[in-house]
Write a structure and sequence with these properties.
Chain A is an all-beta fold. Chain A is built from no helices and eleven strands. In chain A, β5 and β6 form a beta hairpin. The chains are: A mainly beta, B mainly beta. Chains A and B meet through β5 and β10 of A and β4, β5 and β10 of B.
Chain lengths: ~120, ~110
């Protein structure tokens, strides 16, 4: 059974930093691109970042470019999102998401989602 | 960036109704479209991929159609479990983008 378990969310002050982790199990983690998608309270889904299966390619939405860094440790089956210079508008539930296809590249659509971790940026 | 626009934003329907949600892309995305269902407090769930392919385990009352810039998600006979918010997502090109969502409410 595929499981994605996020951790690391919490309350942080504007300008602060936070690192999210996602522990994956139930599939060959190193074969799949992975993604982060966020959802502000009461709002829709926003695509944040992607990383290829071997970590060689990454993508960032313009809204987080230069502030967030996605990475992965295939030996630990873990995905990360390092967030810095956080702003109030980064407040959201952050979902770790598995790509559908075991292919090279950044991926396409999503077949498994974690339960999400809430990040609140407020003073 | 490819903009995805869903209509309506909210839909009121009764159990047994046939429901159709539309998703329009700002440029052609061929058939590179997925649909997700999200219930309150839960993560989204994949329903449809490649515009019309039903994800394993998803009830056959869900169907998708379309190509190019116009797509539809149809629920043939709405069930109590189907009251939720639905999102389309294009994967023709990066950045991957979602529609704003369609909330299906009980009439």
């Amino acid at each position: 059974e595929v499981q994605l378990v996020e951790s690391g969310g919490g309350l942080v002050q504007p300008g602060g930093s936070l690192r999210l982790s996602c522990s994956a199990s139930g599939f060959t983690f190193s074969s799949y691109a992975m993604h982060w998608v966020r959802q502000a309270p009461g709002k829709g889904l926003e695509y944040v970042s992607a990383i290829s299966s071997n970590g060689g390619s990454t993508y960032y939405a313009d809204s987080v470019k230069g502030r967030f860094t996605i990475s992965r440790d295939n030996s630990k089956n873990t995905l990360y999102l390092q967030m810095s210079s956080l702003r109030a508008e980064d407040t959201a539930v952050y979902y770790c998401v598995k790509d559908r296809a075991a292919v090279a590249g950044l991926g396409t659509y999503f077949d498994y989602w974690g339960q999400g971790t809430l990040v609140t940026v407020s003073s | 960036d490819i903009q995805m626009t869903q209509s309506p934003s909210t839909l009121s329907a009764s159990v047994g109704d046939r429901v159709t949600i539309t998703c329009r892309a700002s440029q052609s995305i061929s058939s590179w479209l997925a649909w997700y269902q999200q219930k309150p407090g839960k993560a989204p769930k994949l329903l449809i991929y490649k515009a019309s392919s039903l994800e394993s385990g998803v009830p056959s009352r869900f169907s998708g159609s379309g190509s190019g810039t116009e797509f539809t998600l149809t629920i043939s006979s709405l069930q109590p479990d189907d009251f939720a918010t639905y999102y389309c997502q294009q994967y023709n090109s990066y950045p991957l983008t979602f529609g704003q969502g369609t909330k299906v409410e009980i009439k």
